[in-house]
Design brief:
heterodimer, A: alpha+beta, CPE0013-like fold, five-stranded mixed beta sheet, three-stranded antiparallel beta sheet, B: alpha/beta, seven-stranded mixed beta sheet, five-stranded parallel beta sheet, 27 strands, 21% helix, 34% strand, globular
């Protein structure tokens, strides 16, 4: 069986064709780079997303700090992870890459700052 | 009157890359003028990821991408002014700006780079009928409210237009607890990137209605609902198909327009198609020493291509300042058969045989085609494409050898041909 999908690894958005006859040996075509194969396999077995959001800042030169997960996390955890961001406020100064929330929902992935706040 | 070799209008991705490249080409007398209170431009509010795969070979968020370039500017100690608005640029390259620090200042520049980006088409540009209740925002304004200021503009949202900002905001509003009821797209295809339809709409089961439009906004003080109808082939609404969607907020993502009011004053000739200047392969406009790059020139999908284009503009502006001779002979690129435009539009017939990127947009969605560059009717490049769409810019990278052929040709044409034939 062939499943069509669009790769979201980068803005090129390659149209992938995945042969899922054998789920242990998924064959992917239509990708431009190796990331397409990884994406298709993950998407068919355990879909993941990088989550980006924001946190409120106390005492900084900006009201909001933008953050991202340092790696992709399971798609079904997106909303639970976002809830964590609304629960706490963070203190300035903050640098890009600073860990704001460690080990998000036990995934081993951190929320890190993506903006400089003075 | 002050004097500067190079004045760059705009401190977003285009202006920063142009400044860095001008500095690295040997120029030291550079000034960036930025009207916001920080450098980085619109990247600062684009907190999602997906930036920098071409430039840095890694996936960054907007603010991270901006910071990379801000650091480059600071490392080189390039001068910039914030909270500074340029109010006029004259044909003889006098830039007038205002700021609360300096008041009104005139600078006589040897070269000027317009890197002032684009702005969103507003409600007035699309003539939606109905009441004038609160709750109608452009998608970018909503993005600024949520990501920079920390305010939510509404709870139940309908988005008109499926451009990238609209798609990104559909997900962002969902993340912050709003219910996005639908995205309405006039055309039978999206102007946004495919990946954004997947990860911003499909992931959250947000319906996307192609060939539909909003025919009425209901709500006297605040938006209460919208009336949505299907459109026919001529894009006229079919009123019998109309249905109502209750909502308190409408976001408009109906296109971007290069911001060229200043350039017009400077007698810069604009393209009817891109809304930006008509430039040659040195990114120079019809006005000597006036250059353009980034979204003021034509609206890009990827900031990576903005940075690359702007580096060319920075370098060529320095060549101009240094008095490097320019060829008077030039040739216009013809775009035919489904190709809507190419930037640059003009190729100088000089001996600058450096790699060059031709940025091309098609006029419609086409499947199984070849995108071809022809020189004197001979094929120089032919790229197979399963699908091409107006929402996805094609970047044709030419090598030095190919540029040499391009510059010695008498006719340059870019077109689509059906692969089936």
């Amino acid at each position: 069986m062939i499943k069509e999908m669009i790769c979201i690894s980068c803005p090129m958005g390659c149209h992938l064709s995945c042969d899922i006859t054998d789920m242990n040996d998924i064959k992917v075509t239509g990708n431009t780079c190796p990331r397409g194969v990884l994406y298709a396999k993950d998407e068919l077995t355990q879909p993941k997303r990088i989550v980006t959001g924001s946190m409120r800042v106390v005492g900084g030169n900006k009201a909001m700090l933008s953050v991202k997960t340092s790696n992709a996390i399971d798609k079904h955890l997106i909303f639970d992870s976002l809830r964590l961001l609304n629960e706490i406020k963070v203190n300035a100064p903050i640098h890009i890459g600073d860990v704001m929330i460690e080990n998000v929902l036990g995934t081993g992935v951190n929320f890190v700052a993506t903006k400089e706040i003075l | 009157m002050e004097f500067k070799n190079l004045v760059i209008i705009g401190g977003g991705p285009a202006g920063l890359a142009a400044a860095k490249s001008a500095y690295d080409s040997g120029e030291r007398d550079i000034l960036i003028l930025e009207r916001e209170s920080e450098l980085g431009g619109i990247l600062n509010q684009c907190i999602h990821n997906g930036f920098g795969l071409h430039t840095f070979k890694e996936e960054l968020t907007g603010p991270e991408y901006a910071q990379r370039y801000i650091d480059e500017i600071n490392d080189r100690k390039i001068e910039y002014k914030l909270n500074t608005t340029v109010i006029d640029v004259s044909r003889d390259k006098i830039v007038t700006y205002v700021s609360s620090n300096d008041g009104l200042v005139e600078i006589n520049a040897k070269a000027i780079i317009f890197a002032c980006g684009c702005r969103e088409r507003p409600r007035g540009a699309i003539n939606i009928a109905g009441m004038r209740g609160a709750g109608v925002y452009s998608a970018g304004t909503a993005q600024k409210l949520v990501n920079i200021d920390g305010y939510m503009p509404g709870k139940e949202v309908v988005i008109l237009g499926s451009g990238d900002i609209g798609l990104i905001m559909a997900r962002r509003m969902t993340f912050e607890g709003a219910k996005v009821k639908a995205v309405i797209e006039l055309m039978p295809f999206s102007a946004g990137l495919n990946r954004n339809i997947v990860q911003c709409l499909n992931d959250f089961d947000i319906p996307l209605h192609f060939s539909h439009t909003i025919v009425e906004v209901v709500g006297k003080d605040r938006v209460e609902s919208v009336l949505v109808a299907k459109v026919d082939e001529k894009l006229n609404p079919i009123m019998e198909t109309a249905f109502s969607i209750p909502c308190d907020t409408i976001l408009l993502s109906v296109g971007l327009l290069p911001e060229n009011e200043l350039a017009k004053n400077a007698s810069v000739e604009l393209s009817n198609i891109t809304g930006g200047a008509i430039v040659d392969d040195s990114m120079m406009t019809n006005v000597d020493g006036v250059f353009q790059c980034g979204n003021v020139l034509h609206v890009h999908d990827l900031v990576d291509f903005v940075s690359a284009e702007s580096e060319v503009a920075g370098q060529c502006a320095v060549n101009y300042i240094n008095g490097k001779a320019r060829s008077a002979e030039k040739i216009e690129i013809l775009t035919t058969n489904g190709v809507r435009y190419c930037v640059p539009e003009i190729i100088l017939k000089d001996n600058e045989f450096k790699p060059l990127a031709l940025k091309v947009r098609v006029a419609n969605v086409f499947k199984k085609v070849k995108l071809q560059v022809l020189l004197d009717d001979n094929i120089l490049i032919s790229k197979n494409r399963a699908v091409v769409a107006p929402g996805e810019m094609e970047n044709i990278a030419l090598t030095s050898e190919q540029v040499q052929k391009l510059k010695t040709a008498n006719k340059i044409e870019i077109k689509l041909v059906s692969e089936v034939l």
